[in-house]
Structures are given as C-alpha cells and as structure tokens.
Amino acid sequence: MYFVTGGSFNGKSRWVKTHFNLSKADTTWLSLFEGNIHQLNEWNVSKPFIVIEGLEYGVRSSLLMNEPDFRQSFSMMLDSLSRWEEEHYERKIIWIGSEIGKGIVPMDKFSRGWRDMTGWVYQDLAAMCQQVWAVWYGLATPLKG
Q1: Is the pTM of this model over 0.70?
Q2: Angle 141-132-26 (CA atoms, 0-180°, nearest 5)?
Q3: Closest by alpha carbon to 48, among 95, 93, 1?
Q4: Which residues lie below 8 Å from residue 1, measured CB to CB, with a gap of 6+?
Q5: 3-state secondary structure 55-107
Q6: pLDDT digits (tens, 9 = 90+) for 54-89
C-alpha cells in the first residue's frame, strides 16, 4: 500500500496519476468525499490499481454516524485490503488524504475529534504502507520508503 498526503488542492491526485502511470483501463478510483468509508467493503475490483481518495471525509462520515470503535474497524479493513493487494504482484492500493488542521486545534468538539481521529488513522495507515509522500504545490517529498 501507498499513502499520499498534503494540502487540499495541492496536486495529490495529479501526482498519483503521473507517478504511478495510471490509466482508466487499469485503475479503480474510489472517492470518499461524499461517501462512507465502509463502502470499500462492498468493492468489486478487477483492475490492478485502486486509488482511494478523500480519506479524511471517510473518517468524518464515520464519526457523524457515531460509529463505535472506528479506528479498530479501519485497521481491520486495512488488513483485508493488504491481503487483497498481496494476492498478486501487480496490485497496488494508493490512499490519498488531505492534511487537516495543520496543528491548529478547532474550537468545536466534533472538529477536534475529526482532526484527532484523522491523525490516528493516518498514523496507522503510514505504518502499514511501503511508501508515504507529502505533496505540496504539486511537488512530492518522500516521508517513508
């Protein structure tokens, strides 16, 4: 697995397409901007590349639904996706998630919880990934691998 983070509208998706040389023919692109992260459990993928974009909004959606033990269920989903990826050498899962907060503590309780959970999920994801990059202004900086 691979993880790309950075600021909103800073070129993460474009960088992923270019860096991994992705095409529509070989890539399933899943957006969590308006969806629940658990829709990933229902995926039926026949293409070797999966890009999951908007991770921070998948976290937000789960928190809005008051999902208990979200971090644990996300970890179990990561394990499942990792096993899928390992079944064939061509398979790659690429996560894209925007940095939220930039160290600023939000005033309202929900926003603080969202920021905190997103940070924990990103840490768990980064620990499992082979490589991690931060993309700012279209330029990638390797953080791991």
Answers
A1: yes
A2: 105
A3: 93
A4: 78, 81, 82, 85, 92, 93, 94, 95, 125, 128, 129, 130
A5: HHHHHHHHHHCCCCCHHHHHHHHHHHHHHHHHCCCCCEEEEEEECCCCCCCCC
A6: 999 999 999 999 888 889 989 998 998 999 999 999
